[in-house]
Each structure stands twice: as C-alpha cells, then as structure tokens.
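can u pls check wat happens w/ zinc ion
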Amino acid sequence: MKRTLGTCYYPEHWPEETWQDDARRMVAAGLTWVRIGEFAWSRLEPNPGEMTLGWMDRAIETLGQAGLKVVLGTPTATPPRWMLDRHTDMLAIDAQGNPRKFGSRRHYCFSHAGYLEESRRITRLLAERYGASPYVAAWQTDNEYGCHDTTLSYSAAARTGFRTWLRSQYADIDALNSAWGNVFWSMEYRSFDDIDLPNMTVTEANPSHTMAFRRYSSDMVVRFNQAQVEEIRPHSSAPISHNYMGRITDFDHFEVGKDLEIATWDSYPLGFLEDRVGATPEHQRMYAQQGDPDFQAFHHDLYRAVGRGRWWVMEQQPGPVNWAPYNPAPLPGMVRLWTWEAFAHGAEAVCYFRWRQAPFAQEQMHAGLLRPDGQDAPAMQEVAEMTRELADAPEVQPGTAPVALIFDYASEWAWSTQPHGAHLNYFGIVFDVYRALRRAGLSVDILPPTALDFSEYKVVLAPGLMTLGSELKAALENAPCTVLLGPRTNARTHDFRIPTPLPPDFADLDVTVSRVESLRPDMPRPLVGGGAVTGYIEELEGEVPTILHTQLGQPCAVAQGNRIYCSAILDDTGLDRLMIALCARSDLSYRAMPVGVRTRRCGSEEFWFNHTDKPVETDMGTLPPASVLRRTI
Amino acid sequence: MKRTLGTCYYPEHWPEETWQDDARRMVAAGLTWVRIGEFAWSRLEPNPGEMTLGWMDRAIETLGQAGLKVVLGTPTATPPRWMLDRHTDMLAIDAQGNPRKFGSRRHYCFSHAGYLEESRRITRLLAERYGASPYVAAWQTDNEYGCHDTTLSYSAAARTGFRTWLRSQYADIDALNSAWGNVFWSMEYRSFDDIDLPNMTVTEANPSHTMAFRRYSSDMVVRFNQAQVEEIRPHSSAPISHNYMGRITDFDHFEVGKDLEIATWDSYPLGFLEDRVGATPEHQRMYAQQGDPDFQAFHHDLYRAVGRGRWWVMEQQPGPVNWAPYNPAPLPGMVRLWTWEAFAHGAEAVCYFRWRQAPFAQEQMHAGLLRPDGQDAPAMQEVAEMTRELADAPEVQPGTAPVALIFDYASEWAWSTQPHGAHLNYFGIVFDVYRALRRAGLSVDILPPTALDFSEYKVVLAPGLMTLGSELKAALENAPCTVLLGPRTNARTHDFRIPTPLPPDFADLDVTVSRVESLRPDMPRPLVGGGAVTGYIEELEGEVPTILHTQLGQPCAVAQGNRIYCSAILDDTGLDRLMIALCARSDLSYRAMPVGVRTRRCGSEEFWFNHTDKPVETDMGTLPPASVLRRTI
Amino acid sequence: MKRTLGTCYYPEHWPEETWQDDARRMVAAGLTWVRIGEFAWSRLEPNPGEMTLGWMDRAIETLGQAGLKVVLGTPTATPPRWMLDRHTDMLAIDAQGNPRKFGSRRHYCFSHAGYLEESRRITRLLAERYGASPYVAAWQTDNEYGCHDTTLSYSAAARTGFRTWLRSQYADIDALNSAWGNVFWSMEYRSFDDIDLPNMTVTEANPSHTMAFRRYSSDMVVRFNQAQVEEIRPHSSAPISHNYMGRITDFDHFEVGKDLEIATWDSYPLGFLEDRVGATPEHQRMYAQQGDPDFQAFHHDLYRAVGRGRWWVMEQQPGPVNWAPYNPAPLPGMVRLWTWEAFAHGAEAVCYFRWRQAPFAQEQMHAGLLRPDGQDAPAMQEVAEMTRELADAPEVQPGTAPVALIFDYASEWAWSTQPHGAHLNYFGIVFDVYRALRRAGLSVDILPPTALDFSEYKVVLAPGLMTLGSELKAALENAPCTVLLGPRTNARTHDFRIPTPLPPDFADLDVTVSRVESLRPDMPRPLVGGGAVTGYIEELEGEVPTILHTQLGQPCAVAQGNRIYCSAILDDTGLDRLMIALCARSDLSYRAMPVGVRTRRCGSEEFWFNHTDKPVETDMGTLPPASVLRRTI
Ligand SMILES: [Zn+2]
Ligand SMILES: [Zn+2]
Ligand SMILES: [Zn+2]
C-alpha cells in the first residue's frame, strides 16, 4: 500500500483564475488527493432545477490536469435556501420541539422523504456527469453525518417514520406493548399511530421506547447514505466513502460503512480534547497543544474496522481551529506526528483541512495549509517534511493486531438510555480500556458486534456490551482465546428488558449479577493492591475465583480459565492491573509505556510517538517532544 | 396500636398463575398489607368505556384469601393513551410553554375540568365495585401528587381556572390591582380576563401575582383529591389515604390531608440524599449508603401531622433505586433501621416498594424484595428480622412531643417567590432547625399553620414564617410556652406586601426589622462565641436583649421573656447555641447527640439510631453501625 | 457647574395627600431634582385614548411649588395591558422563539411599527401638555433601554425590519451574498425575503449574518429613541435625557446619545458586582459591601462621552437592592463615596433611587431614602452630609484627561459574534485596561469610535478594536500622541471578513498578525519579568522591537516609536508593566495606587477614594475605610 497525502479545496470560494496556481502548489507540496464539492449545492443548482455545472467541469479538469486525484463530495449536507420552499417541513426538530433552522449546515431531517428524494436527485446528476471522469478517483457522500447532534430529530416526519418502522419490527401493537412492558404505568397503545416520539415526557420515557427510537434514528442515516450509493454505483467504479467524525455515536457507523468502500474521518485532536474527549482539566492542560494521546488512535482503529481495512483521514487539523471552547496552536511537530500516527494505524491517505483559510463565514478562524492571504501557514513545512519522508518509506500492508476490542453502537445507546449513574457512558468505558491497552504497548483491532471469528486474536475484550445478539454471544462463548467481559454484559435484551436467567448468563462462566450499584464519582472504592472502583459495581453470585477485589472484599474481576468477567468500572491503575492479568493469561507481553508515549506496529514497521512537550526516555532511546520514531521490525 | 408491614404489588405485571404463590410468600414473610392498582387504568379500561375488571376481582380475591389486606389505589396518575384523544388539551404545560407529553406518568393538568370528571368516573366505578369488598381495607387516591414537578401547569385550563379563582378571591378587578400594587410598572388590569399566568415575563412577575398562582395551584390539587374522596366515601367505610413524596412543597399537604383518614409517604433515603436533601458533597459521601439522618424523620413527623396522627410509610426503599443521579446499595441493616425509625415516629405500617423487581419499563433498575428472577433480594432477610421483632414488640400509642415546629407551605411559596438571596429557601431553614433539635436529642411534633393550641408544648418554633394569618399570629402571641420566631416572621401580607407597622409586629416583643440583607454564601459573619450567620441577616430596632451577636456587634437573636426572635440564618454551630439557649429557657434538657446518632421517644419506648457506618459510643453503650437500639422507658 | 442632588419619585404609588409632605422633606434634604412618570402609563391612559392627566398636573404643581425641578419620563417602558389587545404581535421574541410576555416591564419589540407609533403618541401628548411647564426642567425618554436583554428580539416584526434594513445596506442580494461569503455552506439567498434571523440555526450562523443583525438591532433602539425626541423637541426647550444602565452593550449608546442633550445612568454598585462585573469570587467578597472600585468610574467616563460632557447619575443605589443574587447593605460611607465619585468624574447631578421604598410589587425589597413606613432609611444621613458638603464646594468645570480610551460598541458585537475563546469579550478587555490606567493613578476620558481628534491627549488606547472604519483608522495612524493598539485591531471588515492585507495593516507599524490562538483560562503563559498572557495571543510578523514577551520567547507587546501593538490579553501584572512602558513613552507619571484606592482629577479638584473596608496609607495620608478625600490642586 502506497501512503498518500491530500487536501480539501473549495474552488467555488476563489476566483477561477487562481485555481491553476493552487493546483500547481498542491502538487508541488506532494499532495495526491483533493476533495471538492461537498458544500457547493447553491452553486451547482442556484435555482430549483437550473443546473450550473460548468464551473465544476472546469475545476475538475484543472485539478486533474495538474496531476491531482479528485474526491467528489455530494453536497447534501447543505441544501440551498430554496429547498425549504419546496419542503417546508424538512428541518430537523430538536428534543424541545423547536426547528433547527436554515443558516448554517446539516439543516435536514433524515426521516424526511421529500428531502431524501432531492438528495437522490442531486447525487444522480453528479454521478451521471462525473462518474466516468478520469479525474474523479473517489466519492464522498454528504459530510459528517450526525455532526452538531443531527441524528436525532423529533419532527413529524420522524414520528411517521418511527411508527412505520415499529410496525415493521413488531407487526402487532400487542406484541410491542408486551415487549416494552407498557402495562407499567398504563402506557399501552391501541395502535401504532398512538405512539409518539420519546421526548418531552413528564418523567423519563420507557427505555424500550427510547432504545427503539435510537435504533430507528440510526437506520434512517443508513437509509439516507444507501440512497446516495445506489445513485452513484451505476455510473462510477470509483470507491465511495463518507467522512465520519470523532465520537459521534448516535448512528451505527458499521452499518453505514457496509455500503461504502472506504471509511474516512475528520481528525481535530486539539478541538476534540477540549470538547469531547471527556478528560479532566489537568489532562486537558497537559495535552492542550498535542491532543489526547489515544483519542485519534482509537478512531483510526475504529474506522479501519468501519472501512473493513480501507480508511483515510479526510480532514486533518493543520493549525488552530475555530469551534472548540479554546483553540490553541499545535506544538511544532504535531502535524507530522498526527500524519504518521494515521499511517501507523493503516491509513491509505491523510488529507489536510483545508487548503487556504477562508476569510469569510463560519470557519474564518480555521487554519489551513495557506493563510487567508495565500502565504504558507506553518503546517506547510511539516507537510513538506511528510512528503520527503513518504518518498523514502516502504510500502506496507497492515496486518492483524494481537488484541481485539469490540465496539457496539447499540450498547452505547443502551447505556445512555439507562445509565443508572449520571456520569456513566459506554464510550468512556470502552475508551478507558483502549487506553489501558495502549499503556501496555499493545496494538489493537477494533471489531464490530457482527465479528464472529476471533481465531486470529490472543485476546478479545468486550467491555460494557450491554445488549448483544445471540450470534455474538455464541461467538464469544466459543472464542478460542482469552475473553474479557463485563460490566453489564448481556444486561438487556434487544427490547430493553432484563433477561432471565439474570446476566451475563454466559456458557462456562459461573457468574450471575445479583444486584448493581452506581456510585458517586467522588467515592472510589479502593482495591486491595492498588487502584479503585469508580462509579459502578455489580454484586456477583457464582464460584469463579476472584482476581481483583475491593478493600471491603467485594470482587470486581473474576476469572475462570481464559474467561474474565470484570464487574466494575475501574480507574486507570485498576485497569492496568487487569491488563497485566490479561496479558499473563494470554501469552502477551505487557510493555509499560512512559507517560504520553505510545507505540504501534503496522505491517513491518513499528512506530513510537511522544505526545508530550518534553523529551522522554524509552526503550528506543530518547524521544524529542512531539516526535515520531519509525523502525522496521 | 399494632405495627404492621406490607408491600406494593402489581398483579397486572405478572402471569395470573404466579399470584397465589406471591401472596403465599408475602404472608410467610410476615406482611399484612398489599397495595395494588394505582397504575392499572389501561388494564381496567383498555378502551374508553370498556371495563375489564375481572382480573382485578380475581387479584383481590387471591390476595385476600391468602390473608392479606388490600390497599386499593385509584389509577388516575396514569390515564391511558386514549384519554388524550378525548381530552386533547389535558396535558400540563411547563413554564416555558411546552406540553408535558404522554409516555411516562402524571401526564395531566390539575386544572383540566374534563380530566377531573374522568378521574371521578373511574374512581366511582372502583368504589362501587370494591367498596364492600371484605379484602379492601384501605384506599389510596392517585399516586404521589406533585411528583416530577407536576403541581404547577401553565396550560390554557390553568389560565382560565386561575382567572375564575382570582375573581372569587377579589370580586373586583380594582381590588386586585390595589392589593397587588399593579400601579407599579403600569401592570393594572381592566378585567380578570386580562390576567395571564406569571410565566415567561420579561423580568420577574409581580410577586403578588406569582404568590396567587401558587395558592391557586395548590387549591387545584386539593380539589382533585377531594373529588375522588367524594366518590369513594358513599361506597366504602375503609380509610382513604394518599402517598405523598419527600420534599414536594408545591401544594399544601395539610389541606389535602384534611379530606383523608391516613397520610402515607414514599421514603427513599438514598435517592433523596442525592437529589433533594440539599446536602454538601461531604455530607452526601458520609451518608451515601444510609441516607440523611434527619430527612426521613422530618417527613415522618410532618406526615403524622398531615394525617392528624394516622400515618404510614407506603413505599420504603429496600435496595438500590433507579432514579437518583447515583444509586448505591443501602448498608446491611439500613432497611431494618428505616423501618424501626418509621415506627419510632408513630407509623402504623411500613410497606416496601416493591414486591418483585420489574424486568421491564422505567423502573427495571429499582430493587424489590424479590429480584426479577423471583429469588429473594437482600432486603428480605431484614424484613424477616423485622417480622420477628414486631411479634415481640409491645403495642404503643404515640404521645405528644415536648417541642413543636410549625411548617407552613404558604411560607415556602413566599420565600421562593422572593428569596432575596439566591440560595435561600424556607424548607432549608425549617429543616436546619429541625436537625438542630434532633442533635439536641429532642423529639419533635410538626404542626400545621392552623394549629392554635400550644398548651401541651414547652417550646413552639416558627422559623421563617414569612406570611401568616391573624389567628396563628394571635395564637403565637398568646402561647404559654417559649416561642421562637424569625427570620422574616410576618414579613408579607396574604397579598404579598410588606405590612405596616413593619414586621414582625408581635405583641410583647419590641422588635422591628428595619432593613434586611442577603449575603453571599461564601461570606459567613462569625458570631462572638462560635457559629456564624450565613446568607441572611436583618437589622433590628427595639429594646430586646441580645442573646447572640456577630463579631461586628450586630444582634442575630434577641430574647424577651420566653419570646425569642432570631434575625438571621445561622450555621449549625449557631443553631446549636440557639437551641441550648432555648432549652435553658424552657425547662428542657439538651442532650448532645454523637455525630450520626439520633434518638426518639414514642409512647413507652425510646429508640436510638446509629446512622453511621462505624460503631458509636452513646449513653446507651456502643451502637453498632447502621443499628437500632430499642428500650422501654 | 453647580453640582446637585435629586431622587426618583412615584406620586401614583402614594395617596395624593402625602405628596406635599414628601416634597417638603425632599427640599429639606437638599434635593434639587425629582424624576417622575416613567412607569405611569396605566394611570395616564387607563383605557385606550382616555387620558387622565389631572393627577400628573397636580403632582408636577405640588413638587414644583415646593421648589423642586421635575424630570419627566415618557412611560413607554411599561405599556398598559390593553396595548397588547391593540397590537397582539408587539412583544419581543427570545432567541428560542418564545414570546416575552406582559407582567413586568420592557415588554415590547423595538422593531414593531405599531408600538413605535403608540410611543410617539403618548410622548406627544405629554410634550404638548407639559412642554411649557415651568417645573419640568428635563425629560427622560423611556427607561433603561436594553435592560433585561431587551435589545435583541427575534419577532416577525424584527425579521421584516431586518430584511428592509439589509436591502437598504446592500441594495442587491448578490452583493450581500458576496459580502457575507454565503457561498460557504451554500447559504446563498435569492432574495432579501429569504433571509431569516440568525437564531436557532443548526450550528452557529454566518458571523456576517449575526453581526448585521446586531447592527440592525442597535439601529432600532436609536430609531425608537429618536422618535420620542422628535415629539418632545417642538414643545419643550428643556434638555432630553435617557437613563442608561451598567454594562448594557447590545446597542450603540453613542448613537442614541447624539439625539439627546444629557446622558444619565443608573448606578447600582453592589448589584453590579454580583451580577455583571465578571469578577472572581475573591474580588466579589473583598468589595461585597462597596462595589467594584472601577466599574462605576468606567461608566461615569463612558456616559460623559455619550452625553458629550453632560451627564448625571439618575438612579444611585442608597441601600440593599432586590435583584442581584445576593443583596447586602453598603458599608456606612459608601453612599457618600459613590456620590462624590460621580461628581469627581464630572456629573451634574446625582439622584437617589428611590424616595420611599415600595411595600408592594417587584421592587419591595429595594431600599429607598425612606423606609416603607416613611421613616428615614440609613442613606438619608449620608445624603444630608452630601448636602452640607456641596454647599461649601466650589463650582467646577471638568476638563480633558491626559489619557483617552476608545470604547466601540460594534467591536463588542464583533468579539461576541466570534470570540474564538469561550471566555473572551471586548468589554472585559477594555475594562481591564481601564482598571490598569486607574491603578496607575491616571484620569481617563472615554471616547467614541467617531472621535478623530486626539490632539489634547498624551496617550490614546484602542484595545481590542476588532472592527473600525477608515476614518478612525486614519485618525489613529495620524495621532500625534502615543497610541496603543491590539489585540485584534482591524481584524474584521464592516461585513465581518478577515481583510487582506492581514491585520492590523497600520501605517508606520510593521506588524502582521499571522496566526491567532485562544488559550484555556487555566493555562497562563508567563512573561519574562512578571505577568502572564491569559486566554489569547497572536503570532506577529514584522520588524518591530519587542517590549514584553513570554518565557517561550513569543512577543506580546511590540513598540515602534510612539506606536505600541499589544498582541495578547494580559493579566493585571502584565497590564501594569504595559502601562509603565506607556507612561514612560508619553511623558506621564505612573502613580501606583494602593489596593482599592483610586484618584481622579476634575477641574481644580483632586479626589481620593478608599474603596476598602480598612484604613489605607496613601500619599495624601491615611484614608479611613469607605472614605473620600477632596483637595484643590
Ligand atoms: Zn416535503
Ligand atoms: Zn377535554
Ligand atoms: Zn400592531
């Protein structure tokens, strides 16, 4: 695999006479890819039905002739203003019942049939025109599905769609009433048309109701994306991608990804650390100009799974951004570090967002590779260095990691539907385990809940898998390797009920969760030997030997052969101890990483990254601040 | 009085074939009472007018035949979905103008005439059918009035009702304008029909307007409850009750209670500590698995007054609940402790909520006496112990405590209408005084503002009585015992004006409040001799000797004979000093309780409770953690 | 100039028989002015078109005959309830789309044409009747424009008005699209009628859109005020004023002030410290009973500029108020201190709000000069002292200060439209500089952005001037004195775009801002020599010598001749060092003030104020707590 670089470009933002020079500079910088078009609808169709594609023809021609490969985006994330005259009810409605109005982007409801048809229409027109272009080497559907909390909409269209979807799931209203336990609080419906969306209820809605709406809402994203794929495929053999975002969990990315050839994502390490990693202020200060050492890596591994091996960074932060609460500059070296990190996790390409900083509109404070006045911005120097380094780098083919970690969007919805403790969330639980694996020097594959073959792994971790299907359950029960389960494994059925026998109800694991407690975050329960339970613990019945327990004697991890059940949420020290136990049982060597240092293997290469702003001593020698070490193994 | 136990049961949740065994196990556990029916409307009347009461007949028969006494609830807290088709405008509207939709419970507006009539109808049908049942030994109206902030509704029905109510109060719009001072800011109305509800105003509404709406809203709860009582009474001689909640102060419980024979309440000590006690995080950590040492006791004493002596705990927490921010398990011993504590305060019965944990719907994480799989949950062991202990216990008749504390819902509304300091609230002020009385080892009677005869008490405390009628004022002026007043006693008229002469304007107490200050909570004003003023202080005129004053020389408590006026909000140390002074003037002995230990006398018995998780030395010897000591005196 | 005192009086609140005695007591207290009428509409016109002005005739007569001068307010801040029947759509709509209802005050939308006409009508009627009154010596339009966040309204009237305004600004929709960069995210409009207000968008609106709406909204306030002036002028030669508030920045006060003879403002030092100064809790505790030492001074200087030299305090806090989160009493001496402070900054008059505390409605907890029962409140003693002192005081004529500070409302909107760092705001930046000037013992003139002649000043400071017109830019470039610029000087065009060449693009200043960073507030970057950058820093290109730089070597202030560019937000120590450098370059002596002490020169007098609650040593000797020292220079 040849590793390549690219950038995101908006020809419609700049005078046509500058395009050629821009293209020339991109090529000179060593870039291969240029993504265009994803917000250009008002220029492609300024009036309903009036297509003005000439400029796009010329833009593609200019870029392609210069030697660049074009990724062409469908412009459906930004329907023009006139679309609202056609479809006055197409806006999403927020949970308080207010419309989310025109004036920025993503102003549509995934459930709206009329807009879905418009989205097909514009996609078809683009596919027909550019499907055979020699320069269009890949497609992108829409832009950042779910960003700005746009997956869930409480519109009339969503209500109608939800009813239809429920009918398809349950057929009979009595079946739904029974599955959801609607007898509780007299919530029984006499017809699917009685069912409203689960917002604005007096107190919490039935979790079965909420969970169904979460599943429905995810399906609507899948449907929307699928429709575009159906329009592009007949006209183009180029791969189709979508650019996902960081920590957007409201729809099932694996399901969307099934219809696409490539998964891409938009990586903004500094913005993410401030607004979504969920870190402590101390951690935020430590990595303010570097980003969290694991957050990007997690998403690299996640989207490699979503793309079934093929994935890119479509938008790489090249300097300060505009949208986080605070927007510092990356330390010198970080743009290069982030780029190599993506390649270390198997990326095919890394594209920088954006080529030239816009001097207008919402993102005018978002750095690009060029300043608004066209001068090189600081990142350009690191891009040049990347280009030089890639020229010398070997072709690699990423293999399989020794450790697998299951990530399941439905479990995320389940935890958020009923967290029990206000601070608990599935993403955090899985990410904490991921971080512990990285502190142990391990490379990780993330797997979807549809993964059933674990034969290549030494360990499979499935933390917090609150709801799971019978196939995955059987696969985990039969896995030949070490398996880590808990907490809350199999705690809810598909319909969001507590199953009987009580969870986890796993073969060859004599563990029953007899009671659960959520704990104040300021009341950790210390473990014997170091570490602590934080926020959640289960009481267990059964005869499985304890491997970790609290100072009060309550087990928080038990193990039977190569099956480990962790019945609590542990702090980092506790998780490190759990990973040591896991490695010991799995023929894996535990390599304790220095603070802020991470390593990853990719094919024949091993990478070491120093995410701190200080030099750090490692087994590979001293790593300078914000640096990458590459070696062949 | 024979003390009994019971539980809450939902036959409609379980297969009919399990009812008999459930009933048998209840009896075997020593339970006397079983409450049923309060959420069952969709099973009693699945379609409008189609009654299906057969299952209820059989459930009552099965439970009664097994030896249990049934408390039958009216199901009006959960009208079925079809009710909204009949009365599309029956939902409550929140203060921001949004409907509070169907999908959970309490989805109705107390002002809605149509729903009031439906509530009468279903109650009448149940009363007619079961009023003469030998097994129905008590009734419950609705469920937890006011829970989930459902007392105040800003609906069209409420607006219409409020106008009618105002007309009945003031007769003439000019009288209202004058009483409210509507000349201020040109708020004068020309007709009662001009008056809107006091929400969504540009800045705060006229406090007279807000206060009137608070009084009206409380009256609507009284009316709603009264209507059910009117339907039950002709058909049944069994006592009628309602299950109140903890710290719901939006309606006047004493007024509702006047129409009922028994007051019951729902006691969830761990959930309350997290979500409504108002404790510091330190206090919340200390009692996370025990609950606040005084919060339940306060409500026991309050509802004893509401029930005019007859009261129960209708729902007692038996394990972790589902609805607080964090939901730990009670320490072993606490279920027993809470049960004995209720009896120590004169309860007739304590019922555990609920029999078997539901594996579905909103409360699937709420522990019961049985687990979802039907096994005994940990609380069952403590219930068994209670049953054994009650068998040996004497019959008792609770008497009068030496100390009376007045609690007045209207004063709560007055403080919240105009707190002056953002953190000030009446409940907190009264509860702090109550806690200080308990730290002094005193048993307390809580009295309504309609209490006029204080002849049996050594002390009457009336802290924070911001608004009071002339009868209570006269009764306090003439009380033969020690009386504690202030702060803000008589600070507002019924119409919410500052009276002239300035407050408190009490006979035989030469005190005038000439100015008030609210203080930042982080700026306590230390007292000479220990303790501090926190948050609020009044400047006094008059010749009454000071008993407590700040280091700046400002009096905060003055006393003339057996009249004490406390002109500030004091911290715990300050309150302890005030209680010592109070006891000294009232022939009461002050018994300083160890931290977390409380005592109460009930008839011939004295109880000691250790609410901590450590053994504590007391005058009665060492109390183990989470333990009860009972002795005859 | 003769300095005078006054008060605010509401004859309509009190029995007519008390007016004469009230007037007599005002005169006896030494008061000259009495403001009346500004909330009296429901008494002036109780029914639509039915004028009842007799009582107002008698009130003016009574007050005037007693020797008082009347300031007559137009009552438009409180339209009566019947106005809403006439104009059902006149209410403002908040950013979430909800009406801001009747029931308090300021319940109107500035864009509403119908209400604007009503406002003209009532103003005309008053002007016709009282324009020639010998007792009406001044007018006040409305009351506290913009208070309670009432400048911005998202009503239908505002939307229509905004479209019309945009048409007048841009003429052609393509011009607007181009100016705003609406090609970004396909936000292009085909007609002005497509443009909505910039609220409730999915993510942030185009900052050009937001900024235009801010400019429009300010213009509507100017228009509203202008209309009243147009009605009064033909009938009266008395000066017209408006009473502005503290830190209301949503409309351009300079623009409103152009149509008025006098600027007045309402000074509530204790309330402001709690709810709008933006101080730390530590600072709030230190000055809880004195108010911030600079906040009032800043507004005195600001409104002196708004009034083009003529300004008053129209409402001076005389005791605890009712509306802040916490409302303590001022320290003894503070009412006098605040009064002298206003005179030290050139006030013509100081009026106390209010005469007698109202025992009803929203402000019943707001102290007056009299208590609700008519007794003197504590402030009366300090008013008496003021009266004695003023009798002996010389006539003064305020001159020009040595230092000018530009305050620009449009820059405030620009920073809030796009702060980049969540905590950054223009008011805070300017106010911090103002405070540093005051710590240096300097008297300051605040100037509007229309000031072009700086010849009388030694220094002009223009911090944070994010957007500025070409005239001011040229004037600053050509200023003969020292000029302090930055950060973000000239960072945006009028249409809210980044200009090219990049900012600041100032003549004779070789500085280019090549990149900006916003920083976490908990990550100060220390300076070499003391102080720190907090929250924001720019990277500079150019050859200008550095005068302050961080420990990492990054410049944060550079200076070329008498031009200083400050490229960061500095903490107080950093600002003090900047002021020392500024004074050194400008022939100004830097006088370091003791903590909490401030000085000001006014004409021939120099004042020293001790804002602390302790005695402080100064060059003038020991200042007692909360005291004023006056001396002739
Ligand atoms: Zn449509
Ligand atoms: Zn109805
Ligand atoms: Zn109108």
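Chain C touches chain A through 50 residues (CB under 8 Å).
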